[in-house]
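ingest -> validate -> predict -> emit
validate: passed (alphabet ok, no gaps, 519 aa)
predict: started
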Amino acid sequence: MKNFIKKRKILIIVVAAAILAVGGYFYFNRDTGSGVETVEAKKGNIFQEVSVTGSVKPSENVDLAFENGGKISKIYAEVGDMVVSGQALIQLDDSEVFASLASAKATLKTKEAELDELIRGAREEEIIISQTKVDNAQIVLDEAKKTLVEKIKNSYTTSDDAIRNKADSFFKTPAIPAPQLNFYISDSQLKIDIENQRLAMEEALNSWSLSLAKITVDSDLALYIAEARNNLNKASVFLDKANSALNGLTAGASVTQTTIDGWKTGISTARTNINTAIDSISTAETNYKNAQADLVLAQQELNLEIAGSTIEEIKAQEAQVEKARADVLTYQVQADKTILRSPISGIVAKQDAKIGQIVSANTVTVSVISANQFEIESKIPEADIAKIKIGDLAKVTLDAYGDGVIFGARAVKIDPAETFVEGVATYKTTFQFEKSDNRIKSGMTANIDISTDKRENVLVIPQRAIIFEGAEKFVMADNGASGFEKRKIEIGLRGIDGNVEVISGLEEGEKISATGQVK
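emit:
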């Protein structure tokens, strides 16, 4: 019975409170008699939010690729494996680079030994060996000179045969004073060029012959090389034009096809011989210069051993030792680069490698994401980005878990450059979860409500009560018996609940039309 009475008293109190609340509402929001619904300007709190969507991503996400391509030889981790920073993931075949490394180490030992010899000084036996190297280098140089002189003379013989034997077979008067072709060609300029160049070649061959009569192995061979190249090039140009003329020639009463074919064969052979002569001189010149350089080097080494080592020479050798050490280090680094290692601790999210596969340089082969730390990337339109600043708090829900599961986050980065999405400028903004949670997974869709601003204990009214006229805002204020007046106001923050902060124009307790309209 006592419980019943107690419950009845509680019920009476609840009902009375409800009646007072309803009465208060109708009192403060009562119709003033004008038939206009009114609301009262009251003090309250305003909260502003921006709602966007984004995608969950690991806070650390690295795509790994080899700097140099190669064949995969070992795989240490598969998709889903937990890895730690520095752990090997994939290895390329390193046999070639290790061979180079071994060679570099051997070179280093040689350079170090040479440095030791410089410091110790040359022995008589070493001087004899160096003198032998000089003698041998001199023999090679002498042979190279003879060969070069022979190739220069042969180039004249080849040119003489190409012009005076093979090309002259289709000239009426091939030599001085006026060479003439013994067949007709329609291209008059080509005809003039061929005949003029034949005359020039005659003069060049005569001058060349006189020059070569003086050549010896002790001559300034560079001048003879230049002369030979110049004349060979002239001959090549002349033969090219002659070949063009013959290619346009057809058999007729004045010349048979057999004759034409013979001329073509002769010119083809002549052109080949000229090109071969050019190549031969280039090869002989290269051998000659190499032999000169080898002799100089051998003589320098002999002089060094005879004179003994100077401080400068020892320093130079020390520099070679340092270079050899650098080469060893370079190949060691290349060897290290044949192993792809994880720079972070996390989970292997992607791994496309297979043993024996050839991978190209800078092609992503493995991706590793951090295991526990995640963040959200969202593209926020320019209309809202000005409201957001670094450090703003946000409430996040994930589609996977519904609206009932809320995660805390905070804005940590706003990109200064825009990204256009469907023609709208957006700014990539990054939010970081405030706590680690195993339920959060990479790729999940996130719904983000960002608390961008708030005002506490400020004057607020419903936004629907405001009359907007251009840049100015008005309300219809209730003046009691005198009716409503249109009053200009200044507003501040707009809240997520439909209320707006009033900065000026109204006082607390004043009533205004709830819809901005007065009948």
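The chain has five domains: 1-30, 61-93+338-369, 98-121+315-335, 124-308, 377-426+446-513.
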